[in-house]
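Hi V.,

You were right to ask for the full record rather than a summary. Here it is.
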Amino acid sequence: LGLQAHQAPLWLWEANKAKTFAHEGQVTRLVGYLAETELHMRLSPLRMQMKPGSSNRFDAKKSLVAERSEFDKRWRTPETPLWACGELKEDTFIRAFLDGTLTWQKVREIIGMDRRIEWERVAQKKREVSTT
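Predicted structure:
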């Protein structure tokens, strides 16, 4: 993602939403939200440019929330093949946690994040071609 070791990956409002899911014990919502946030960070033009602390947080929040909302609509359509359609299984993550193997890399593997990113990049290219 191009972040420095000391640089926060999430904006304050993103971190607060993740903390809410964690405090409420909503494992699948937390994992899904963080995975969608990673997709937003990797695939959306504005979010790739605007890293936490890079601009006024109020201006950034308004722009980034609007952009994320548009991406969320597309990621949650019936054609979306992976976890964005509610295919996350809480038990899978809890088992990995109890086994001591739960890392973000393991989560990415479980949900097929690399496939998802590639699928989104192909879909973006198709949309670009169809609009030209």
